[in-house]
Amino acid sequence: MPDRLSQLFVRTLREDPADAEVRSHKLLVRAGYIRRAAPGIFTWLPLGLKVRRRIEKIIRDEMANAGAQEVFFPALLPKEPYELSGRWKTYGDGIFRLTDRKGADYLLAPTHEEMFTLLVKDLYSSYKDLPLTIYQIQDKYRDEARPRAGLLRGREFSMKDAYSFDIDDAGLDSSYQKQRDAYERIFQRLGIEYVIVNADNGLMGGAKSEEFLHPTPVGEDLFVRTDSYAANVEAFVTTGLAEIDASSTPAAAVHPSPNTPTIETLVDFANANWARDDRKWTAADTLKNVVLKLTHPDESTELVVVAVPGDREADLKRIEVAFAPAEVATAEAEDFKNYPELTVGYIGPWSESGQFLGEKHPAKIRYFADPRVVNGSAWITGANVHGHHAINVVAGRDFTPDGYIEAAEILAGDQAPDGSGPVEIARGMEIGHVFQLGRFFADVLGLQVLDQNGKLVTVTMGSYGIGVTRLLAILAEENNDEKGLIWPKNVAPYDVQIVAAGKDDSILDAALALAGDLESAGFDVLVDDRAVSPGVKFADAEIIGVPSIVIVGRRAGEQIAEFWNRGTGERKEVHFSEVAALI
RNA sequence: CGGGGCGUAGCUCAGCUUGGUAGAGCGCGCGCUUUGGGAGCGUGAAGUCGCAGGUUCAAAUCCUGUCGCCCCGACCA
User: Fold this and answer.
1) Cβ-contact A509, A187 below 8 angstroms
2) A384 and A282 belong to one structural domain
């Protein structure tokens, strides 16, 4: 029997919910697909579940094509595996923790690397068992500091996570490639635009890491791209900077510089008082020294100073990557108390007696610089004396950083590392992530197998995730108009929605008969059999977004219906027998 | 965690400045009419005004505290 709208558990809303901001969130709630249960946590109604199942179907298809087998882990897990991997701690407030009646600690899994690793360890012990790729589609839990945008960033979300297990790096490369290919097919089948970008490997080390980003203004990640290069800004590597010949640069000198609290005022002051012959000073001539507080995994803290050219902001995300696994925060007044060497507002690598910042220099504070601070570059920077700046402070001559890290923000127009020219910057939402974990989890959890020589070797792993409910939200975000949702055919909750438009019983009978025929022909059919005015039915059909709508009305007696393409808006009268071919 | 906004009927909101009978639209029930674009008329049910304390003869409204939600930022394998 086709589903009848009069019986379907759904209620459409005429107005946008007050707590929704992004389009997908508003429409999914208004059209009766989901309901909010708690911040970032949603209840799924029949329509929403149907779409979700259809997305999962496509993912399962492609996982099967890629030779991956489905398993299913609990969402509620004991803490021990996570203690072994260290993530019970490193996840911090990001996981939901709970305690059973005996006082034992549990967590709602944010992701399942440990469990997959232990399962394979449990069952397999020979190289002959490998390679293996297994996956699950399971709800994940993360206690996000701020859930937002409905399904796009929830605290409970469905994710397909796959893991590959190989004996050697070549095997890992091959398993990785299979999943990567599968991801491309999945996103293509779903009609979701994506870019593959190089990503940061995070805490777990490993070799390759690539993110599938969907370019969208509601995205949370920034990425850069050219025709041939794409990377998350976190993974962008600055290259192609040549050393500068500083042999004619005058010696560094300290000058008073009152009332220059910002880069802008400093540049103005420099041009007014230290004018140079060849050109004006610009922000790019100043060196900004940012004081950061590192919190190491053992909870110890340390202040470090990071230098970036004054015309760029320091990018904390990029810096975080460089200092991982330490956590990075900007230093606050409190933190400076223990560091009287630091003259806030006038911090610099050099003072009149020579290099000042750096592990082996008077301040004993580690000093790092962005690669743009090339040897020979000359800077206006703090002189470590209140109210004074130094000019012509030359990198490599007057100071040498303890190390170089990617610290400055990336700007549109920067050169791509592969030489393909200036990059553009865009916003994207992560929809998939493939990456080579390597042996991190296998090491800490002891996943080893015997190789051909009878020797124990540690297995190498890959991890491959796709956010299922996030994909659904993105599909809703991309496929709609002012009237409502417009689902792509392969994920729509129904193939066709039949609207019985007219009060005569014969119209409803004809609609039901047509529905029965279409269902027999293999279509998933929804019939609007309600005793409401046609306007209501049309409006609901539009917001629900089934791509093919068939109106059975005035000419039902002649077996004539109107076929309505929700996407194009095109409507035309056709004989009942022709409907199937149009769906 | 920092900044901003908001909690009044199932939903979207008004009322609060200036204290005095708790409202509208939509939705929901019933009756009649209507049936190709959220239809009409009549009638009805529905609210501890987030919570707690205080001021007052009297608090949705003023004061204090507290909880929650949304947005921006920080954060986000």
Assistant:
1) no
2) yes
